[in-house]
């Protein structure tokens, strides 16, 4: 057995283990769906049959009316109820047709054999209705036969209603249907009572057999009403008491007592049609109560059917979702175990001498721990091989570096010798350059001194020119003051000439010559004022130009000052250059000493070249040996292998 199990694949083993629970889940889900579907079908049948029972109640009610009118018609030997009977028969036919139409709409699969047989018996009894009506019209049938015919149809209809209470497992629905049946029976007996007394009042008497039948009927009616009270709820009982109370009911009880007390001698003196109308009021109240009860049953069955349908769909959806989730979870779990395992087996089989490959670790379960242990073992092996390979590579690299170093040393020795020659030649050029730089620095120092002296002289000349401009400006201001004085004199002269003209005018003919002189004087004063104004304008123009020249001279003076400062800075730089030439001379001496040291190093390098050549040959042999041993294994870089090994131990 163990051998067979070990030969199975992991996927097949998991499938075998999960198959039975999944099948059990599917079986229980199917059973639950079938049970709820049966409940839905039961409520569908109950709702349809309850609606049919409602139509049956309507047919019973119309049949009761026709039965009572028929009894009155036969009891009066056709004298009463003729017209009313003719009007009632279409109502009875309409109720029967509605019952038949409701039956035809039923799905025959909803009907039990017993219910089907009852419905067939009702059809058979109904086929005799036309013949019975014809015999009633011809007064060729006894009242007992007519009543038996109508009572038989009603009895089968009410028996059908009673059968419905046995077709449901819902206790409340069964109780209400039983109450409805009891009320139908009581109302049917009330209809028979209406027919019997209508016949008795029409015949104005009652035979002993009919009286005994009447008393039995009253007892049965009361028994059915008591049964209804026990089955119906508080609301139903209250509605029944309201229907059977009031003056309309009290007068019926009085007529009933009258019929019983005077059954033998007769002489009732009661109209059969009046009795019929009074009893019809009672039956109408019972019919209203009956309709309320059956409407409540129909509504409740509809609610229960919808609830059952919702429960069916809810259970089906939940069962389907649970099954799908179970299947998906099983598939995911199997895949989560087998797929990494297959990948690990494939990776181990195909890796060969490649020690760098590792197994993927999907989680922390037992398989993941197994993969982790394998990876740690591979890491240790890889680290070991990597160390050996690293040592071989290190030796090979070291020997190669030494050989290359020998070659480099020889080359550097030659280059150093050539560099020494070039350095000596460069020192001579540097020495000549330093000397020339020192001479140029001295010449530049002399030239900057001369330029600084000339800049100072130019600054002094500019200062003198600025002072001369200021003196010229002051002279112009004096001239301007003189011109203002002349202008004032001309104004005063003009006023005196004007006064002289006024006085000459007063003198009349004697002052005419004086007036001419005064007029000439005024003209001269006006010309003097005009000339003074022109002189003032010229002086203003000169003053503006002198001011502009003063600004230019001041700007020139500032520029020369800055030039002088720049020349002084240049002189400072030239002094620094002279100092640098002395430092360069000292550096040249140091370079000469370094050249002597380089010569000694060159001799030492030549001796080291021979020693390194012998060591490199030995290292080459060791490197070839170790490289040939580890060349068959593939590993990562040695530093990466060490890091991975440390991480695996951590």
TrEMBL record:
Keywords in alphabetical order: Coiled coil, Membrane, Methylation, Transducer, Transmembrane, Transmembrane helix
Record has Transmembrane as a keyword: yes
A cellular component term, taken from the record's GO annotations: plasma membrane
Pfam families named in the record: HAMP (PF00672), MCPsignal (PF00015), NIT (PF08376)
Name of the molecule in the record: Methyl-accepting chemotaxis protein
Coiled-coil intervals, chain numbering: 591-618
Limits of the NIT domain: 54-304
Transmembrane segments: 312-334
GO biological process: chemotaxis; signal transduction
Subcellular location(s) per record: Membrane
InterPro entries from the UniProt entry: HAMP_dom, MCP_chemotaxis, MCPsignal_dom, Nitrate/nitrite_sensing, Nitrate/nitrite_sensing_bac
Similarity field: Belongs to the methyl-accepting chemotaxis (MCP) protein family.
Ranges of residues in domain HAMP: 335-386
Main location: membrane
Molecular function via GO: transmembrane signaling receptor activity
PROSITE patterns: CHEMOTAXIS_TRANSDUC_2 (PS50111), HAMP (PS50885), NIT (PS50906)
CDD domains the UniProt entry points to: HAMP, MCP_signal
Domain Methyl-accepting transducer: 391-620
Domain of life: Bacteria
